[in-house]
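Input.
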Amino acid sequence: MEQRRSSHTSVVFFLVLTLLGTSASAKTPHASEAQAAQPPASIAALVDQHVSTIEKLVIEAAEAMPNDKFNFTPARLHLPGGAYDGVRTFAVQVRHIAASNYFLWSSLTGDKLPDGLKDGNGPESLKTKAEIIQFLKDSFALGHKAAATLTPENMLQIPEGSKSSRLHRAEFGVAHAYDHYGQMVEYLRMNGIIPPASRNKSD
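Output.
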């Protein structure tokens, strides 16, 4: 319980600092007129920005993997000392992110879970790259909808059937997607593909 409260407090503290920083920057004499005219960001707007950032990274990475390698798994490489037996394929990594998005964010919006969403790996009926990426995009659309529900008054409320606050569930969806984005990046590089976010950079 104390650990969960600490986690909630850290997230709220970070968001408050970000809000204060946004408000202060809008008042500096060096800010443009357009920036000065904008009101300070809300909790909902900040979380929505976080969703947008990881959404772009994950979708671009998913789209970068060719059709014929979409079901790639590192186990196929038989790397010396590797322990990749049973790990998710690239396709299932993408489905997993989307499925988790639905499980986490639907409790904030009240949306019904998609048909066939039995576990964290997403519907097995989704086979093609196009189907899986559409499933991913739809899940992030739900993330934007979930972010829009957040207010200073309700962000620490615990949704029915959950053990964590609305804010925690919204932000955990973002953090979880970053975790699996890192794995997608490795899968791409194992196939000689530079992730879109890293192109034209020194790394």
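Confidence is low (pLDDT under 50) at residues 1-29.
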